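Recall that a protein's primary structure is simply its ordered list of amino acids. Everything else, from secondary elements to tertiary packing, is in principle encoded there. The following example makes that idea concrete.
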Amino acid sequence: MSGASAVELQQLRDAAIAAGIATQFSPTEATLGLRELSPAGFSAQESMRLLIPVLDLAAGSLGELSPQQAAGLASQAMKAFGISIDEALISVDRMLQAVNVFALNASELPLALGTASRGAQALHQSLSETLIALGLVKNVIPGVDRALHGLGRSRRIAYRTRYFIAAAVAVAQSDLVLTLPRRPGRHLARQLDLAAYAPPLALPASDVLAPWHARLNDDPLHAWVREAVFDAANAPERALVTSG
């Protein structure tokens, strides 16, 4: 660990050995966790204090996070949300609670927090508030990013929009590529003379929600519109193709 004295290096070795005895992880795994904390700006003394919370996070993830990954996640959360060393253990508990309560994947937390923390900082949200938001909106990370993250890859995003049509038009006028659900993707490809290909990796399915106010549950006209939308969404793709 850079900047550590000879005494501190010995203390770090002792801490790794003690952690290997006290936890399910070996001293080597504990050392990898310690090494991950140094580039994040933590001193040797701070890293030793963070070691047990980091290993607790790795253990609580049930194999989804290695000690090294847990150290990266802990340091990421602490830096993004201004969490002190003394609050580290509580913050780890909150992350694990969010994983359990909202059935989140611990392995997706680094990417999820990295995506959400920018907006959270602007809104002055705490880690707990951000974790709750992630739990309520599980699809905050697009399926493409989740799949690429699992391969250790990421994409470069050049243009953002909420609308499929606007994104497809941007692709038609540039050298960009776009990932779309199959049905609108094929339709827009035909309309804009775009080449359409299946993605080269498996992508997770995304939920499509249709919320409405409870007072409209029994409204005949609203119920008819809902049924029409659901029938269209569930219809075979060929049934939606009309002749010109």
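Residues 239-244 have pLDDT under 50 and may be disordered. The chain is about 60% helix and 0% strand.
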